[in-house]
Amino acid sequence: MDSDHGRSSADGGKDVWPQALNRPADARDTPGAIPPTPSPPLGEHSATGRGIAGLSFPYQVVAALALSLIGLLACTQVAMVFLHVAPSNTLTQQHGKTIDRWIYPEFEQNWKLFAPNPLQQNIAVHVRADVVGADGRRTTRWMNLTYEDSKGIRGSLFPSHVDQNELRRGWDFYVNSHDSENRPNGLRGDLSESYVRRIAMLRLSERDYGGTIARIQLRSATSSIAPPPWSDEKISTRPVYRVLPWWTVTPDDLPERDADQDRDEAYGVEENQ
Predict the structure, then answer these.
(1) Helix (H) or strand (E) holding 198
(2) Rounded to an integer, what distance in angstroms lies between the CA atom of residue 211 and that of residue 133?
(3) 24-38, 62-76, 131-145, 169-183: segment of lowest average pLDDT
(4) I want to staple 211 with a disulfide (CB 3.0 to 4.6 A). Which of 12, 15, 131, 157 is the partner?
(5) To which H or E segment does residue 222 belong?
């Protein structure tokens, strides 16, 4: 038994560890041993990493009040900006001035939360022509260009981009480039007018009026969308018209094929003369 115990101890067996653990602390301190890490003092450990809880009670009250005030201001700022950029609603109608005083000028926003804004009006563009024919001069009835485009959109799985946007964007271009008296308010006024005239002549050229179109006139009919049945809001849906002056048709207003034909006729007349 003794020889076995000695052999196991010499070979580093398990029987050596209980004896080593039962030795006194001084006996275990060998030159190559790693000393244990001392624990920090209790007061020093408890005073670090406690944040506001480590402050005295008066300072805790001041810090809590400051954080509450910052949180309240942040929530108020978010709410005011949201109401400022949101579409018109009951709150903005009742407290619009208060919201504007909070936002302007430091927090002005030049974008909308819901863009584009839901359309609240229907705008239709009409045109009529002054036609010179064999029976004299006559004026046609108003032609609803917007309605003609709508017919090409309804029921179509792949509606034309021209039917959807050409006339609408052209009219917006003209309105934004002119004042209420139809006078250009910038350098793009003449360009927008030429663009609208060409659109109108392109649509009119698809019809045979029995003569030559000498002048055209455009107007817009703007009517508000009726409120839903459950709403108590009262809105007039009668159209409001904006009538443009008569424009004399020039070769630049004609579609390309008609302009080329007019130039050929003009050259033929000159050669005959």
Answers:
(1) helix 189-204
(2) 4
(3) 24-38
(4) 131
(5) strand 211-224
Per-residue CA distances from 252 to 55, 97, 128, 132, 189 (Å): 82, 50, 18, 19, 16
CB 247 within 8 A of CB 272: no
**Cα separation values, 73 from 67, 100, 102, Å:** 10, 16, 12
Most confident region among 47-56, 85-94, 220-229 by mean pLDDT: 220-229
Residue 114 belongs to what H/E stretch?
none
Mean pLDDT, residues 84-94: 85
Distance CA 138, CA 143 (A): 15
Closest-CA residue to 213 (of 143, 160, 149): 143
C-alpha span between 194 and 18 (Å, rounded): 104
CA distance 206 to 143: 12
Burial class, 173, CB count within 10 angstroms (exposed 0-12 / middle 13-18 / buried 19+) = middle
Q: Token pair for residue 220?
A: 């817009």
Q: Which residues pair with 213 in a beta bridge?
A: 131
User: Hey, what are 45's tokens?
Assistant: 């450990």
Query: What phi and psi values does residue 169 have, to the nearest 5 degrees?
Result: -70, -35
